[in-house]
Amino acid sequence: MNHRRHRDEETTYWLSYSDMMAGLLLVFVLVISFTMLHAKMDYDEKQNELVGKEQELVVKAAELDKEREIVSEQAEKLNAQEEALTKQGEKIAIQEKTLEEQNELLNKLAAVLSEQQQKLDDIIGVRAELVTALSQEFGDSNLKVSVDEKTGGITFDAGILFDYNKSTLKPSGQEFLSEFLPRYADILLDPKYKDNISEIMIEGHTDTEGNYLFNLSLSQKRALAVAEYCLGDKSNILSSDQLEEMRQLISATGRSYSNPIYDENGKVDMEASRRVEFLFRLKDEEMVREMIEILSEDQ
Questions:
Q1: Which of 49, 115, 141, 237 is the most buried (most CB within 10 A)?
Q2: Contact by Cβ (8 Å): 285, 123
């Protein structure tokens, strides 16, 4: 009886122990399951976070690629701008060189113009002095001559020298030239003027009656008749020195009726148009006149 009781107690013990162990095992299983579930949840959460991070990285990578493309485009633009600036710099350098050359040329031109201006001033001054001297010499004389206040050209009526339509000097014409020419030569051959004289022209002019060639021949013959009387080998109007100097300067030509004289009503003054003129040209005057004309055309 006691042995059976003892066995029952022992069986009860082991059953309780077994239940306890089973309970512990169940608790352990539950703990492990909960731990695994929690770990799984943490894993899933971390996995989701990782996926989110990967997506963010993908987006960032795409944005970075776009930024790289923008930077690349900007770099290309900068390179293009640098090339353009380089070309512009080369053009500017060429333009600067051209400007320097032009400035140098302008400086040279300014120097030439200044020199020509000085020559022009000298010429104007010399001509003005000659005009004054001629006006003073012949203005109050008994010789019927007119002195051009601008050019210094001297004009006298061809009727004093020649008969109508003739080219042979009259005695009165010879007397007139004998008195006129020495006084004229004294002024133009004066040492302060003669170095500036390049030419003295004797010009014959006619009225507008008749044809051009007849009047051209007549005007030339009259100019040559005056030159021959004044400068011929038999001429004794001037000293030998003056004669030689005047021969080197004087030329004679006829102008026909190409330059008639008009009266105040605009009609040809026939009597005044029949004339002989003594004109003078100064050295460098033609060159300066041409330069003035060129500059006037440029302006």
A1: 237
A2: yes
pLDDT in tens, 224-263: 999 999 999 988 999 999 999 999 999 999 999 999 999 9
CA terminus-to-terminus distance, the chain: 155
Is this model's pTM higher than 0.85 or not?
no
- Give the separation between CA 79 and CA 293, rounded to whole angstroms: 53
The CA distances from residue 90 to 18, 45, 216, in Å, are: 103, 65, 65
- Give pLDDT, residue 286: 63
- Residue ranges of the domains in the chain? 139-298
Q: Give CATH for domain 139-298.
A: 3.30.1330.60
For residue 274, what are the CA distances in angstroms to 91, 158, 166, 216, 218?
66, 6, 11, 12, 11
Residues of the chain with pLDDT under 70: 1-11, 13-15, 17, 109-123, 285-299
In the three-class reduction of DSSP (H, G, I as helix; E, B as strand; rest coil), residue 6 is classed as: helix
The 10 Å Cβ neighbour count of residue 123 is 18
State how far the Cα of 222 lies from the Cα of 167, in Å rounded to an integer: 5
